[in-house]
Amino acid sequence: MAVLRGLFYGFSDDQLYQYKRNGGRFSLWVDPTELDDQCKAIARALETLKNYHYWTRSHPVSVVLEKIMDDTGLIPSTWQEPEGGFVAVT
């Protein structure tokens, strides 16, 4: 659950509680069709994490890390300055 509350997804404790209360399960194998619209964002995040898991089964670690960084925008966000500009990389 920490990843759902962290930098990439940012769900609040209340959102996670409501998800669980409305029948959601914290599993990579949850069926999002069983959930109401309010919970589908969390289910989509879990679906993304499931895709990352599958990548680890079919690609080398270096490829998985690159794919996750591309998917999340991790590298470009680390170059961005608080004012909205970008750090020059030389």
The helix content, as a percent range, equals: 55-70%
Q: What's the average pLDDT?
A: 82
Q: What is the CA-based Rg, rounded?
A: 16 Å
Structural classification: mainly alpha
Number of extended strands: 0
Strand percentage:
under 5%
What's the short version?
By secondary structure, the chain is mostly helical. It is built from five helices and no strands.
Descriptive report:
By secondary structure, the chain is mainly α. The protein has a domain of 57 residues. Helix content is 56%, strand content 0%. It has five helices and no strands. The radius of gyration is 16 Å and the shape is flat. The mean pLDDT is 82.
Topology record:
Blueprint lengths: L1 H4 L7 H9 L18 H19 L2 H12 L1 H6 L11
Supply the key terms.
90 residues; mainly alpha; 5 helices
